[in-house]
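Good morning C.,

I know you're traveling, so I'll keep this short. The sequence:
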Amino acid sequence: MTPRRRQAAAKDRAYEHVKRAVLSATLAGGELISEGEIASELGMSRTPVREAFLQLEAEGLLRLYPKRGALVVPVSSEEIEAVIETRWVVERFGIEKSLALGTDLSAAFERSLAEQRAAADAEDAGRFAEADREFHRIPVAAAGNPIVTSLYDSLRDRQQRMVRAMIAVDWSRVRPIVEQHAELAAAIAGGRRAESERLLRSHLDGTLAALRRGGMAP
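The C-alpha coordinates, ready to paste straight into the viewer:
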Protein backbone atom coordinates (compact mmCIF):
# COMPACT_ATOMS: atom_id res chain seq x y z
CA MET A 1 0.00 0.00 0.00
CA THR A 2 1.35 3.42 -0.94
CA PRO A 3 1.85 6.12 1.75
CA ARG A 4 -1.08 8.08 0.35
CA ARG A 5 -3.39 5.08 0.56
CA ARG A 6 -2.21 4.26 4.07
CA GLN A 7 -2.98 7.85 5.08
CA ALA A 8 -6.45 7.68 3.55
CA ALA A 9 -7.13 4.33 5.25
CA ALA A 10 -6.01 5.73 8.60
CA LYS A 11 -8.23 8.78 8.15
CA ASP A 12 -11.23 6.56 7.35
CA ARG A 13 -10.54 4.42 10.41
CA ALA A 14 -10.32 7.49 12.65
CA TYR A 15 -13.49 8.91 11.11
CA GLU A 16 -15.51 5.72 11.67
CA HIS A 17 -14.15 5.32 15.21
CA VAL A 18 -15.08 8.83 16.34
CA LYS A 19 -18.39 8.95 14.49
CA ARG A 20 -19.47 5.63 15.98
CA ALA A 21 -18.59 6.91 19.47
CA VAL A 22 -20.56 10.12 18.94
CA LEU A 23 -23.65 8.41 17.52
CA SER A 24 -23.68 5.77 20.25
CA ALA A 25 -23.26 8.54 22.88
CA THR A 26 -20.02 6.93 24.09
CA LEU A 27 -18.72 10.43 23.47
CA ALA A 28 -21.41 12.63 24.99
CA GLY A 29 -22.52 16.02 23.76
CA GLY A 30 -20.36 18.74 25.29
CA GLU A 31 -17.33 16.48 25.72
CA LEU A 32 -13.98 17.82 24.53
CA ILE A 33 -11.67 15.38 22.75
CA SER A 34 -8.19 15.84 21.35
CA GLU A 35 -6.37 14.63 18.27
CA GLY A 36 -3.68 13.17 20.51
CA GLU A 37 -6.14 11.09 22.53
CA ILE A 38 -7.75 9.56 19.46
CA ALA A 39 -4.41 9.04 17.72
CA SER A 40 -3.11 7.23 20.79
CA GLU A 41 -6.21 5.03 21.03
CA LEU A 42 -5.88 4.00 17.39
CA GLY A 43 -2.10 3.81 17.21
CA MET A 44 -1.70 6.37 14.43
CA SER A 45 -0.34 9.86 13.87
CA ARG A 46 -2.40 12.99 14.46
CA THR A 47 -2.66 13.91 10.77
CA PRO A 48 -5.38 11.39 9.78
CA VAL A 49 -7.24 12.16 13.00
CA ARG A 50 -7.18 15.87 12.15
CA GLU A 51 -8.62 15.08 8.71
CA ALA A 52 -11.33 12.95 10.29
CA PHE A 53 -12.20 15.75 12.72
CA LEU A 54 -12.58 18.17 9.81
CA GLN A 55 -15.00 15.83 8.05
CA LEU A 56 -17.04 15.36 11.22
CA GLU A 57 -17.13 19.12 11.74
CA ALA A 58 -18.55 19.48 8.22
CA GLU A 59 -21.25 16.98 9.18
CA GLY A 60 -22.15 19.01 12.26
CA LEU A 61 -21.04 16.43 14.83
CA LEU A 62 -17.88 18.18 16.05
CA ARG A 63 -16.81 21.79 16.54
CA LEU A 64 -13.07 22.38 16.32
CA TYR A 65 -11.11 24.72 18.58
CA PRO A 66 -7.50 25.36 17.53
CA LYS A 67 -4.95 24.06 20.07
CA ARG A 68 -7.74 22.84 22.36
CA GLY A 69 -9.38 19.97 20.52
CA ALA A 70 -12.85 19.17 19.27
CA LEU A 71 -16.16 19.59 21.06
CA VAL A 72 -18.84 16.95 20.53
CA VAL A 73 -21.73 19.18 19.48
CA PRO A 74 -24.66 18.73 21.88
CA VAL A 75 -28.10 18.01 20.48
CA SER A 76 -30.12 21.24 20.44
CA SER A 77 -33.87 21.83 20.35
CA GLU A 78 -33.40 23.47 16.95
CA GLU A 79 -31.65 20.37 15.59
CA ILE A 80 -34.40 18.07 16.85
CA GLU A 81 -37.09 20.19 15.21
CA ALA A 82 -35.15 20.41 11.94
CA VAL A 83 -34.41 16.69 11.76
CA ILE A 84 -38.02 15.64 12.36
CA GLU A 85 -39.35 18.25 9.94
CA THR A 86 -36.97 17.11 7.19
CA ARG A 87 -37.67 13.46 7.90
CA TRP A 88 -41.37 14.16 7.28
CA VAL A 89 -40.59 15.61 3.86
CA VAL A 90 -38.18 12.83 2.84
CA GLU A 91 -40.12 9.87 4.24
CA ARG A 92 -43.41 11.09 2.77
CA PHE A 93 -41.67 11.34 -0.60
CA GLY A 94 -40.37 7.80 -0.15
CA ILE A 95 -43.84 6.46 0.56
CA GLU A 96 -45.43 8.31 -2.37
CA LYS A 97 -42.75 7.29 -4.86
CA SER A 98 -42.47 3.64 -3.77
CA LEU A 99 -46.26 3.28 -3.97
CA ALA A 100 -46.29 4.92 -7.41
CA LEU A 101 -43.65 2.44 -8.55
CA GLY A 102 -45.67 -0.45 -7.15
CA THR A 103 -42.70 -1.80 -5.20
CA ASP A 104 -43.56 -4.70 -2.88
CA LEU A 105 -41.94 -3.88 0.47
CA SER A 106 -43.73 -6.53 2.53
CA ALA A 107 -40.76 -8.88 2.99
CA ALA A 108 -38.40 -6.04 3.88
CA PHE A 109 -40.84 -4.72 6.47
CA GLU A 110 -41.33 -8.19 7.97
CA ARG A 111 -37.59 -8.68 8.39
CA SER A 112 -37.24 -5.24 9.95
CA LEU A 113 -40.09 -5.77 12.40
CA ALA A 114 -38.62 -9.11 13.45
CA GLU A 115 -35.30 -7.42 14.15
CA GLN A 116 -37.00 -4.66 16.15
CA ARG A 117 -38.86 -7.17 18.29
CA ALA A 118 -35.68 -9.13 18.92
CA ALA A 119 -33.87 -5.94 19.95
CA ALA A 120 -36.78 -5.01 22.22
CA ASP A 121 -36.73 -8.45 23.87
CA ALA A 122 -32.99 -8.10 24.46
CA GLU A 123 -33.39 -4.50 25.68
CA ASP A 124 -30.52 -3.56 23.40
CA ALA A 125 -30.79 0.19 22.79
CA GLY A 126 -28.10 0.31 20.13
CA ARG A 127 -29.56 -2.58 18.16
CA PHE A 128 -33.05 -1.11 18.38
CA ALA A 129 -31.91 2.35 17.23
CA GLU A 130 -30.28 0.77 14.19
CA ALA A 131 -33.37 -1.35 13.45
CA ASP A 132 -35.57 1.74 13.75
CA ARG A 133 -33.34 3.55 11.30
CA GLU A 134 -33.42 0.71 8.77
CA PHE A 135 -37.22 0.40 8.99
CA HIS A 136 -37.83 4.00 7.98
CA ARG A 137 -35.17 3.79 5.29
CA ILE A 138 -36.99 1.02 3.40
CA PRO A 139 -39.49 3.15 1.42
CA VAL A 140 -36.95 5.95 1.00
CA ALA A 141 -34.45 3.59 -0.63
CA ALA A 142 -37.24 1.98 -2.67
CA ALA A 143 -38.02 5.38 -4.22
CA GLY A 144 -34.81 4.94 -6.20
CA ASN A 145 -33.37 8.44 -5.80
CA PRO A 146 -29.77 8.12 -4.52
CA ILE A 147 -29.50 11.80 -3.60
CA VAL A 148 -32.62 11.62 -1.42
CA THR A 149 -31.38 8.38 0.16
CA SER A 150 -28.01 9.98 0.95
CA LEU A 151 -29.78 12.97 2.53
CA TYR A 152 -31.89 10.61 4.60
CA ASP A 153 -28.86 8.70 5.83
CA SER A 154 -27.27 11.93 7.05
CA LEU A 155 -30.49 12.86 8.86
CA ARG A 156 -30.62 9.53 10.64
CA ASP A 157 -26.97 9.81 11.63
CA ARG A 158 -28.01 12.90 13.54
CA GLN A 159 -31.07 11.29 15.10
CA GLN A 160 -29.45 8.00 16.02
CA ARG A 161 -27.91 9.35 19.22
CA MET A 162 -31.20 11.09 20.06
CA VAL A 163 -33.11 7.80 19.78
CA ARG A 164 -30.59 5.91 21.89
CA ALA A 165 -30.77 8.51 24.63
CA MET A 166 -34.59 8.64 24.50
CA ILE A 167 -35.12 4.90 24.92
CA ALA A 168 -32.37 4.67 27.52
CA VAL A 169 -34.39 7.13 29.61
CA ASP A 170 -37.76 5.52 28.89
CA TRP A 171 -37.59 1.93 27.61
CA SER A 172 -41.39 1.69 27.80
CA ARG A 173 -41.46 3.71 24.56
CA VAL A 174 -40.04 0.79 22.58
CA ARG A 175 -43.03 -1.56 22.35
CA PRO A 176 -45.44 1.18 21.21
CA ILE A 177 -42.89 2.23 18.57
CA VAL A 178 -42.78 -1.31 17.19
CA GLU A 179 -46.58 -1.46 17.03
CA GLN A 180 -46.72 1.90 15.26
CA HIS A 181 -44.16 0.59 12.78
CA ALA A 182 -46.30 -2.52 12.20
CA GLU A 183 -49.36 -0.37 11.43
CA LEU A 184 -47.36 1.87 9.11
CA ALA A 185 -45.84 -1.12 7.31
CA ALA A 186 -49.27 -2.67 6.77
CA ALA A 187 -50.65 0.58 5.33
CA ILE A 188 -47.72 1.02 2.93
CA ALA A 189 -47.72 -2.65 1.87
CA GLY A 190 -51.47 -2.35 1.28
CA GLY A 191 -51.01 0.66 -0.98
CA ARG A 192 -53.00 2.96 1.29
CA ARG A 193 -51.22 6.26 0.75
CA ALA A 194 -53.44 8.59 2.81
CA GLU A 195 -53.42 6.24 5.78
CA SER A 196 -49.66 5.75 5.46
CA GLU A 197 -49.02 9.49 5.55
CA ARG A 198 -51.38 9.97 8.50
CA LEU A 199 -49.63 7.22 10.48
CA LEU A 200 -46.19 8.57 9.59
CA ARG A 201 -47.16 12.09 10.70
CA SER A 202 -48.53 10.79 14.00
CA HIS A 203 -45.44 8.65 14.56
CA LEU A 204 -43.01 11.50 13.92
CA ASP A 205 -45.02 13.86 16.14
CA GLY A 206 -44.82 11.28 18.91
CA THR A 207 -41.07 10.92 18.41
CA LEU A 208 -40.61 14.68 18.62
CA ALA A 209 -42.66 14.89 21.82
CA ALA A 210 -40.71 12.00 23.38
CA LEU A 211 -37.38 13.58 22.50
CA ARG A 212 -38.48 16.80 24.17
CA ARG A 213 -39.69 14.97 27.28
CA GLY A 214 -36.54 12.89 27.40
CA GLY A 215 -34.42 15.95 28.03
CA MET A 216 -32.71 15.91 24.65
CA ALA A 217 -33.52 19.57 24.20
CA PRO A 218 -33.80 22.47 26.63
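Safe travels,
E.
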